[in-house]
Design brief:
about 280 residues, about 20% strand, 2 domains, single chain, Jelly Rolls, elongated, Arc Repressor Mutant, subunit A, alpha+beta
C-alpha cells in the first residue's frame, strides 16, 4: 500500500442488539455530521484499540487513546475520529437502550478513555473476539445468549448499576472468565506443570472460583484438562502425517508425564489403545 492510499479491512458479526467488528485500517479520518446524525441512529460504539492511536472529538471533548486503551462514543452526536497511523481495533456496537439502565451514568462514560489493565475490558475483548470468530456457526439461541453476555461485560467495564452488576457477575462475567481460562488451558496443555494454582494466579482469581466455574458445567478442572489432552493426543495419533511419530512422544507433547497412565486413560476414553487407533486410521 503506497503513501496516501486508504484501506480498511473488517470482519463483522451481527447478533441480536449487537454488532462486533474487527477492523484493520490505514491512516484516515472519519466524520459524522448533522446529516448523518439526523438518521436517528443512537447506537454506542466501544472501540478497543489493539494497535495504533486515535483522536476522537465529540460533544466538546477531544481524547487521544493508543493501543491497549479503549474509548466510547455515540452515533447520536456530531463528531470525528482521526486514525493517525495504521492500526487494528475491536469495535462493539450496542443500541443505547440496551445500556441505559445498566450503566450508572452512561452519558458520563462517553468520551472517557478506558486504560489498558481494566479486567472487565480484557474479558470483553477476548469474549467478543471469540463470538466474532464463531458467530456464523452459532444457532440463533446461542447468538442471543452471547450478545447478552457482551452487554453484561460492557456494563461492568463502564460502571454497572448494582442490579446490573449482580446479573452480569452471575452471567456474562462468569462465562467470559471461563472462556478465558479455557483458552489459557488450551495454550498450556503441553506443559506438564499446568496447575490450578498457576492458572488462578495468572487470572488474578482464586482456585476455588475456578473450581466453581467448572462445577457449573458439570465437570472439574482436572477432568477438563484430561479430556482436552486426550483429544489432542488422539488427533495426533490418528493423523497419517504422524505415522512415524512415536506414540510416547505424542503423549508427552500433549502434557502426559506417565505413559502407563496415558495408555489407560486413552483406552478408557476411546475404547482402544493408542496403537490400535493408529492402525485403524491407517486402514490396517
Amino acid at each position: 500500500m503506497g503513501p496516501g492510499q486508504f484501506r480498511v479491512d473488517a470482519s463483522i458479526a451481527n447478533l441480536p442488539n449487537l454488532m462486533i467488528s474487527s477492523v484493520t485500517n490505514s491512516s484516515y479520518e472519519i466524520k459524522r455530521g448533522a446529516a448523518l446524525v439526523a438518521d436517528g441512529d443512537d447506537r454506542i460504539n466501544l472501540n478497543i484499540l489493539r494497535r495504533g492511536n486515535i483522536t476522537v472529538k465529540q460533544g466538546g471533548h477531544e481524547v487521544t487513546v493508543s493501543g491497549g486503551d479503549a474509548i466510547l462514543w455515540t452515533n447520536g452526536r456530531i463528531g470525528s475520529a482521526n486514525y493517525h497511523s495504521p492500526g487494528n481495533r475491536l469495535v462493539v456496537t450496542i443500541p443505547r437502550q440496551m445500556l441505559a439502565g445498566a450503566v450508572v451514568d452512561l452519558d458520563r462514560s462517553m468520551m472517557l478513555a478506558l486504560p489498558r489493565g481494566n479486567v472487565a475490558l480484557e474479558l470483553l475483548a477476548g469474549y467478543a473476539q471469540g463470538l466474532l470468530n464463531e458467530a456464523d456457526e452459532m444457532p440463533p439461541a446461542l447468538r442471543a445468549i452471547g450478545a447478552a453476555h457482551v452487554h453484561d461485560l460492557v456494563a461492568i467495564a463502564l460502571g454497572a448499576t448494582r442490579d446490573a452488576a449482580e446479573i452480569a457477575n452471575g452471567r456474562g462475567v462468569r462465562v467470559a472468565r471461563l472462556s478465558a481460562i479455557k483458552a489459557d488451558i488450551e495454550q498450556s496443555l503441553g506443559h506438564r506443570n499446568l496447575s490450578l494454582d498457576g492458572l488462578a494466579r495468572r487470572h488474578g482469581i482464586s482456585p476455588r472460583y475456578i473450581r466453581a466455574l467448572f462445577s457449573g458445567e458439570g465437570t472439574s478442572f482436572t477432568d477438563y484438562v484430561m479430556a482436552r489432552r486426550l483429544l489432542r493426543a488422539h488427533a495426533a495419533v490418528v493423523d497419517p502425517r504422524n505415522a512415524d511419530h512415536k506414540i510416547s512422544a505424542i503423549a508427552f507433547e500433549a502434557g502426559f508425564g506417565d505413559l502407563s497412565h496415558f495408555n489407560q486413560a486413552f483406552r478408557k476414553r476411546f475404547g482402544m489403545t493408542p496403537s490400535d487407533a493408529r492402525l485403524l486410521s491407517l486402514g490396517r
